[in-house]
Fold this sequence. Notes:
The protein has 239 residues and is of the alpha/beta class. It has two domains: 5-16 and 107-238, HAD superfamily/HAD-like (Rossmann fold, 3-Layer(aba) Sandwich), CATH 3.40.50.1000; 18-103, Four Helix Bundle (Hemerythrin (Met), subunit A), CATH 1.20.120. Helices cover 48% and strands 13% of the residues. The strands form two sheets. Strands 5-4-1-6-7-8 form a six-stranded parallel β-sheet, with helices on both faces. A two-stranded antiparallel sheet has the order 2-3. It is elongated, with a radius of gyration of 20 Å.
Amino acid sequence: MSIKAITFDLDNTLWHVDDAIRVAEQNTFGYLLKHCPKIKQHHSITSIRQLMFGLVELRPELRHQISQLRKMALATAIEQSGYSNAEALQHAETAFQVFLHGRHQVTLFDDTLEILDRLHQDYQLGALTNGNADINLLPVRPYFDFSFSAEECKSSKPDAKLFQAALNYTGFSPSECVHVGDHPEQDIFGAQQLGFYTVWININNQEWPGGVKASAEINRLSDLPRTISAIAKNADRSG
Length: 239
C-alpha cells in the first residue's frame, strides 16, 4: 500500500495570507467610507472584527460559515451607523465582494506551482480549508483534483468531516493519504484522528506545541516532494 493522495490546507500553507487579508479589510472599509460615510463615526476595521467575534459567540455555527459571518458583521456595522436594513444588506454584499477579491490577491510561497505540478504527476491533490479561499480564482487551480471547505461541509478542521470528505471523494484509505498544513491542531491533529500521514509546514520555525508530532516537519515548501517520497517509502514498507 502506498501514498495515492495529498491534501493541502491553503492559507499560510501554500501562500502568505495575512497581508492579503489586511489589505482586503482596508479596501472593504474604503468602500464603506465612500458609500456609507456615516460609518466613520461608529465603526472601524477593528470594531467590525469585534462584531464578527461577537456573532460567533451568539451563533457558534457561524465559525464554519466565514463568508456569511463577515457579511453579517458588515451589515450590522452599516445598520448601526444609521442606514436602513435594506441599505445595510445591499452594501454589505457589495463590500464583501470587495473583500473577497482582495483576499485572493495572495503571494504564493516560492516554487509553489512547480512543486504542485511535480506532485500532481504522481498523486491526486486536494484542498481542505477552513477559510473562504476559492482555488478556482487562483493560479493553483490546474493542479487540484478536488477541494472541500468548512462552509461546504458545515464543519471546520480539526473536525473529521473535511478529511472524511476527501476520503469519500477519492475512495482511498487514510493510510494512502498525506495531509499538509501549517496548523498543529486544525491540520495535524485533525488528520491524525483519521489515520492520515501528516506534514507540518513550519515556515516560522515555531516550537511544536505538544501532542503526537506530525509524520514529518518542513520549513519550506520546496522540501515537500522529497518528504512525500520518504513517507511513501515508509508506507510501502509498512504495507
